[in-house]
Design goal:
Layout: H1 21-36, E1 54-57, E2 70-74, E3 84-90, H2 127-133, E4 136-137, E5 142-143, H3 150-170, E6 174-178, H4 187-192, H5 195-211, E7 215-219, H6 228-231, E8 235-239, H7 247-254, E9 258-262, H8 265-273, E10 282-286, E11 300-302
Parallel strand pairs: 1-2, 2-3, 3-6, 6-7, 7-8, 8-9, 9-10
Antiparallel strand pairs: 4-5, 10-11
Length: about 300
């Protein structure tokens, strides 16, 4: 769509074992050797510069407009040379071009409709099967991923984690995980998924992103304002926060490290002229399908 791992269970102390002098001496020698070696540097990441000129290129890459220093691109595109590039990943729902390559082999991780048994030969690439068996986002015809249990969240985080690692290896600096608010998509998703499911899954993804050296964005979802520390968000990307009067929900948590994407000229103008928004935040106007420059319907402006 263009739109916490718990602490380990405590265990009792191991029985005391009598160590030989040779083993003890070896341990001491190893400890001394280890202390003499330089400590490995901790993995670090850097959030984008606040109020930088931004471009939203998740629908296709093109040469960034003059003055652009920060942009988002789909994970299958390459980062822009010399620019801070954010890696877009649809982390909570399916992409059409991933159904056959990824999700057809992991149907148990797709959110099934309540009370429906999904047969082994069901096919998420077939529209009739999707409508019959799985919960989808009607606006984008994407199947929701099943984040309802810790075991499924772990499996999904491992799959998506591979994409996150690839973003880092390709040279991206941050991760934009889309559809964080998928639990709100429709009546079925609200019955089957909870806000806490999303928080727990997002925390796993944040941990993976940070381990790979990527900053981690809160994408939309003002309902999770205040969860920055619990999940591990570093900055925010907010679609249409001016249109829906939600920008304060993000600036309360992230100050001016908020990127605003508007899809209507009047909302873009409102954002650009609003106190503590246009002068302090990165604001961009794009067409809703975020098509690349040169394509039909292309729109871009920034303030």
């Amino acid at each position: 769509m263009f739109g916490g791992v718990g602490a380990p269970s405590a265990i009792g102390p191991e029985p005391r074992r009598r160590l030989s002098r040779a083993v003890t001496a070896s341990a001491v020698a190893l400890a001394l050797l280890s202390s003499a070696l330089p400590a490995s540097a901790a993995t670090t990441w850097t959030a984008p510069t606040p109020n930088a000129q931004f471009d939203y290129q998740i629908g296709g890459a093109y040469t960034p407009p003059t003055g652009t220093t920060v942009l988002s691109r789909d994970r299958r595109d390459v980062p822009a040379a010399g620019k801070y590039t954010i890696c877009y990943v649809n982390a909570f729902q399916t992409q059409d071009d991933e159904l056959d390559r990824v999700w057809k082999q992991h149907q148990d991780l797709l959110l099934a409709k309540p009370g429906v048994h999904v047969p082994a030969d069901a096919d998420p690439t077939v529209k009739a099967d999707v409508q019959k068996y799985w919960v989808s986002d009607s606006g984008w015809s994407e199947i929701l991923l099943d984040i309802s249990s810790s075991s499924k969240r772990e499996e999904l985080a491992d799959i998506v984690g591979g994409w996150i690692d690839s973003c880092a290896q390709d040279g991206f600096q941050a991760l934009e995980p889309d559809n964080l608010d998928s639990w709100t998509r429709n009546r079925n998703s609200e019955r089957l998924l909870t806000q806490q499911n999303a928080v727990d899954y997002a925390a796993l993804l944040a941990e993976r992103a940070h381990a790979a050296g990527l900053a981690f964005a809160q994408k939309n979802t003002p309902a999770l304002s205040g969860s920055k520390a619990d999940i591990g968000f570093d900055f925010a990307i907010a679609e249409e926060c001016a249109r829906y009067n939600e920008c304060d929900s993000y600036t309360d948590d992230y100050g001016n490290n908020v990127i605003v994407v508007e899809y209507r000229r009047q909302d873009f103008d409102t954002a650009c002229h609003a106190p503590d928004v246009g002068g302090d935040l990165s604001v961009v106007l794009r067409n809703r399908n975020v098509t690349p420059k040169g394509s039909s319907g292309f729109v871009y402006d920034a303030c």
